[in-house]
Specification:
The complex is a heterodimer of chains A (203) and B (425). Chain A has one helix and nine strands, in the order αβββββββββ. Chain A has 203 residues and is mainly beta. Chain A has a domain of 135 residues: Porin (Beta Barrel), CATH 2.40.160. An eight-stranded antiparallel beta barrel of chain A has the order 1-2-3-4-5-7-8-9. Chain B is mainly β and 425 residues long. Chain B has a single domain, classed as Methylamine Dehydrogenase, Chain H. In chain B, strand 33 and strand 34 form a beta hairpin. Chain B is globular and about 110 Å long. Chains A and B meet through strand 8 and strand 9 of A and helix 1 and strand 1 of B. Strand 9 of chain A pairs antiparallel with strand 1 of chain B.
C-alpha cells in the first residue's frame, strides 16, 4: 500500500480515540475565552522536506484556508495557496480538521485533499532529441497533527507536522525519425514530503 | 534532565521524519512501436514438423551435406534439396523450424537455431527427421525483425517466445530516461538474415561464409548474442550442453574455422581464437577495420574479408580486404580492393568467389594477393548474390531470385547447370 495512504489512514484512525477525551471548558484557566463554533481563517507556511532523486530541494508552501468549526470540534473548509515542487503550483483543496479540546492549548489533526494546477509557462524548448511541451499539476494529499495556542481570544498560532503528497508531471515529445508519431514522454514526480507547519488562525 | 531527554528525542524523531520521505519519479512513454506477438513456450517447443516441399520465398543461409543442399527459409525452416545431380536439384522436404536462421550438420545430426533454442534433429532418414534434443534459451534475446521504421516495445519472456511484431501504440512505465533517453530498445538480437559458411570438420557439411554456427568435431561454436560466443558439446548427439561462454567486446557477425583457429567476423574487425582446447576458445589476436559487416574466409596464410554498406552494421565503404595471417598473433592488411557491395565469399584452391551484391558473382585468381582485381577470371553480373559454397567443381550460390549452381571444373568455361527459382520470380 502506498506510504501516503497508510499515513493518512493511520492518522484518521486516531480521531475516534481523541473524541473520547472529555471536552474542555470554553474558557481556559488563565481567562482566555476559547471560541466555540464559527468560521476561521488559517494562514500557514510550511517547509516541505524530503529526499529527492531529482535534487529537488526542501520547498516552502504557503496556504490560506477558510473553514467552519462546529460545536463538536469538527471543521470543514476549503483553501488555496502557492506551492513550488519542481514547478510553481496553485493548489485547491478541501479541508477537514478535528479539535478534541476547547482549551487555550488545543491539539488537532487535519486532512487536505485536492488538486494543484501548474502555473508554469508551457515553453517550447527544442533540444536535439525532442521538445518540452507542457507541465501539469496533480493530486494533493496532506494530513498532519498539530496544536494551536490561543494567545488572544480570536487569534491563535499553530505548529504542526504532517505528510504532503503532490503529483506533478512534465510532458516532452521525443523525435522519432521513422514511421508513426513522435513519442510522448510524461515524466511524473510524486513528491512525498514531511511537512513542518507554522501558522496563524483568525476567528 | 527528563525534559532534556524529551526534547532531544523529539528532535531526533523530527529529523528522522524529515529524511524518511523520498520522492518517486518515473515516466510514462507513449509511442508507436513494434509490439511483440507471443507464442506459448509449450506450443513453440512442440512445433517442429516435416512437410512436403514448399516454395522458396525468402532464402537465407545454405548448407551442403552428403548430396543434399539445405536452404534456410528466413525464420520459417529449412528446405531440403536433393542435389545428388546438381544439374537437376529437387526439393524433397521442408523442415518447419520456427525462427530458424542458421544450421550445421555433423554426422546425421542437424543442429538448427529456433528463435531462443538450439535443436538437434536426427536426419538419418532424411524423410523422417526426429527432434532428439533441444537446448533451451541458448539465444535468450533472439527475436524476429519487425518494421524497421518503428522502435521496439518491451519483451516479456514470461509470456512466451516472440514470433512476430505488430505496430501499435503502447504506453510503458519506466524509470526516467531509462536507455539514456532513447526509446529504441537496441538490446534485442535480431535473427539476422543472410548466408553462411564454414570449413570442413570430420563428418560435417559445408556452409556459406556468413555462418553463426561452426562445427569442430563434436563441438559447436555459436554466436548466441553479438557479444557472446558459446561452445556446445554435441558429442553424445542427443544430449547437448554448453561447456563454455566467452564474452567478446565487439559485435560478432560470422564464424569461420580453419584447423585449430576460429576466425570471427565482427562489425569492427576480425578476431582470431585458438582452439587447442576445442572446448575453450582462447583469444589470440585481432585485426581492426572500418565498421561494417564482414564475413571472413581463410586458407591459413591469407584471410579474405568483405566489408559492405547498406546494413545495420553501419559503414560507408565496400571493400575486399586481404589480410596476412601467417603470423597468427600479428595479422596485417596486405591490400584493400574496392567492391560494389560484397556479401558472402568462398575460396577453393587458387580461386576466390565473391558475391558482390547487385554487381553479381565475381571469380578471381587469388594467387597474387597484391593483384587480385587484375586477375578476374569470370563475372556474372545479372544476379543479385548473397553467398556461395564452392565445392569440388560445383559452385552453389544463393541469390535474390534463386539458387544457382555452376560447374567450374573448367575455369575457362564456367557453366550454369541449374537454377531453382524463388516463388514469384
Amino acid at each position: 500500500m502506498p506510504r501516503h495512504i497508510v499515513f493518512i489512514t493511520g492518522l484518521l484512525l486516531t480521531i475516534p480515540a481523541w473524541s473520547q477525551l472529555p471536552a474542555g471548558p470554553d474558557k481556559s484557566a488563565d481567562g482566555v475565552k476559547i471560541p466555540g463554533n464559527g468560521y476561521f481563517i488559517h494562514l500557514s507556511i510550511s517547509n516541505l522536506a524530503g529526499r529527492s532523486s531529482n535534487e529537488e530541494p526542501d520547498r516552502l508552501s504557503i496556504h490560506l484556508l477558510s473553514a467552519y468549526k462546529t460545536s463538536k470540534g469538527l471543521s470543514f473548509g476549503a483553501g488555496s495557496g502557492i506551492d513550488h515542487l519542481e514547478i510553481p503550483l496553485l493548489p485547491f483543496y478541501a479541508y477537514l480538521r478535528y479539535d478534541p479540546f476547547k482549551t487555550k492549548f488545543s491539539p488537532y489533526v487535519w486532512l487536505k485533499s485536492g488538486y494543484a494546477v501548474s502555473l508554469a509557462a508551457d515553453d517550447q524548448e527544442n533540444t536535439w532529441y525532442g521538445s518540452y511541451t507542457e507541465s501539469k499539476g496533480g493530486l494533493l494529499l496532506n494530513a498532519g497533527i498539530g496544536f494551536v495556542l490561543y494567545t488572544w481570544p480570536n487569534i491563535g498560532i499553530n505548529m504542526g507536522v504532517g505528510y504532503r503528497f503532490q503529483k506533478v508531471s512534465e510532458t516532452y515529445h521525443d523525435y522519432w525519425w521513422g514511421g508513426g508519431e513522435d513519442a510522448v514522454r510524461e515524466i511524473i514526480t510524486e513528491f512525498n514530503r514531511f511537512e513542518l507547519q507554522l501558522g496563524i488562525i483568525f476567528r | 534532565m527528563k525534559n532534556l531527554l524529551k526534547t532531544t528525542g523529539f528532535f531526533i524523531l523530527l529529523i528522522a521524519a524529515m529524511t524518511a520521505c523520498e520522492d518517486r519519479r518515473y515516466e510514462l512513454i507513449t509511442y508507436e512501436a513494434n509490439v511483440p506477438v507471443y507464442m506459448d513456450l509449450k506450443d513453440f517447443r512442440n512445433s517442429f514438423t516435416m512437410s512436403e516441399p514448399v516454395e522458396i520465398k525468402q532464402p537465407g543461409k545454405i548448407y551442403f551435406k552428403d548430396g543434399y543442399l539445405f536452404v534456410n527459409e528466413y525464420s520459417k525452416g529449412i528446405h531440403v534439396i536433393d542435389n545428388s545431380d546438381p544439374a537437376n536439384p529437387e526439393k524433397i522436404a521442408f523442415y518447419n523450424i520456427l525462427g530458424n536462421i542458421d544450421m550445421a550438420i555433423c554426422g546425421n545430426i542437424l543442429y538448427a537455431d529456433s528463435y531462443i533454442d538450439l535443436v538437434a534433429i536426427d536426419i538419418s532418414d532424411i524423410n523422417n527427421p526426429v527432434e532428439i534434443d533441444r537446448l533451451e534459451n541458448v539465444f535468450p534475446e533472439s527475436v524476429p525483425e519487425g518494421d524497421i521504421w518503428y522502435p521496439y516495445s518491451r519483451v516479456d519472456s514470461k509470456k512466451g517466445v516472440v514470433v512476430d511484431w505488430k505496430v501499435r501504440t503502447v504506453t510503458e512505465k519506466r524509470e526516467v530516461y531509462e536507455q539514456g533517453g532513447w526509446i529504441y530498445h537496441n538490446m534485442l538480437t535480431y535473427t539476422a538474415a543472410g548466408a553462411v559458411d564454414g570449413s570442413w570438420s570430420a563428418g560435417a557439411g559445408k556452409a556459406g561464409s556468413m555462418a553463426r554456427f561452426m562445427l569442430n568435431n563434436e563441438f559447436l561454436y555459436l554466436i548466441a548474442h553479438p557479444w557472446l560466443l558459446k561452445t556446445v558439446d554435441t558429442e553424445s548427439g542427443n544430449e547437448m550442453h554448453i561447456v563454455d561462454s566467452v564474452e567478446v567486446s565487439r559485435d560478432m557477425e560470422t564464424l569461420y574455422r580453419l584447423g585449430d583457429k576460429l576466425f570471427i567476423g565482427t562489425t569492427t574487425g576480425m578476431l582470431i581464437y585458438g582452439l587447442n582446447n576445442p572446448d575453450k576458445p582462447v583469444f589470440l589476436s585481432s585485426y581492426d577495420h572500418i565498421t561494417a559487416c564482414d564475413p571472413v574466409v581463410t586458407d591459413g596464410t591469407y584471410a579474405y574479408v568483405t566489408l559492405r554498406t547498406g546494413n545495420r552494421c553501419g559503414g560507408n565503404q565496400n571493400l575486399l580486404e586481404v589480410i596476412d595471417i601467417s603470423s597468427i598473433t600479428n595479422p596485417y592488411l596486405v591490400k584493400s580492393y574496392p567492391m560494389y557491395n560484397p556479401h558472402g565469399l568462398g575460396i577453393e584452391g587458387d580461386l576466390l568467389f565473391i558475391c558482390d551484391g547487385a554487381a553479381g558473382l565475381k571469380i578471381y585468381d587469388r594467387t597474387d594477393p597484391l593483384g587480385i582485381l587484375n586477375n578476374q577470371l569470370a563475372h556474372f553480373p545479372d544476379i543479385d548474390t548473397y553467398d556461395v559454397i564452392p565445392l569440388d567443381g560445383i559452385l552453389m550460390l544463393i541469390g535474390e531470385d534463386g539458387i544457382y549452381q555452376y560447374d567450374y571444373t573448367d575455369i575457362q568455361n564456367i557453366v550454369l547447370i541449374s537454377h531453382l527459382l524463388i516463388a514469384g520470380e
